[in-house]
Amino acid sequence: MKLSIIVPVYNLENYIATTLESLLSIRFSFDFEIIVINDGSVDESESIIQGYQKKYGQITLYSIEHQGVSNARNTGISIASGDYITFVDGDDTVEPDFFEKTIGELNSGGYDFVQGNYRRIDGDNTSYDQFVSEDVVITEKDIMHEKLFGLEKLIQNHVWGKVFRAEIIKDTLFDRTIKIGEDLKFVFDVIEKSKKIKLLSCVGYNYIQRNTSTMHVADINRYIDKLKVLSYCKNRVGNNSILQSIERQELLALLAMYAMIARNGGDNRECYERICALDIKSIRDNLSNNVRLKVYLIKYARFIYDLIIRKRHKNSNG
Which helix (H) or strand (E) holds 207? Predict the structure, then answer.
């Protein structure tokens, strides 16, 4: 088996058929398997997948108790038999030639993983590309870290849109305790074991945005999880420039978390203390004027800043 495609599914009855049709339509000259992990769906997702499984031998369905996408992906990794492993969310699609291109690169170049560009689709008529304009090969760890955390970010946080050599991720697990940021932690862990990766200029993945998805739900826990992941990564890198890049992301997450708590009239003292504890001087040049102003107001006019946030929130809600 050349390629294992892992598809986690939870209550995606309106989307999973399109995703499976996309995967069954790929142009691929090697054997591949589509491992669908039904993560305890309570809608018609399972019956839809079963219908496809009966018709197409490439599809294997595993139904498990609902424990989240990280557990579902871990289950898929443990089952996968391919030389290469990729992840596709159950509401997205893949370009027909993407896997042919990526497997060709992995076979010829000996890369640990290959990443393609993706197309973000928001609604029926809105779409735009995020992309690497030219193919990039990276062999130095510090550069991999910089392209993951730095201002000139090229390595995307998400695991979809990438194809991994199976041997490098078979003993790498998604953190089931994290709901937001689990992809970043996984990619970071894989990078720690990688010697050579390639970023392709082609667009291979279609990311369909939904307002009801986890990434769009306003929840304080998303910032708590992100900060936990950034702290995990920060403790494992030694390059000062990369540490500063991670601290910049920490600051932005803390500011967003602070504002969310202030809007709801909660106690944001811990956020305030963590913002004050960061060495802002070392990352000042990489901060926008707006961010600098927020930090200044929080440090020296916190009460006024909180009032401004609550006033704006009240006005925006009528």
Answer: strand 197-209
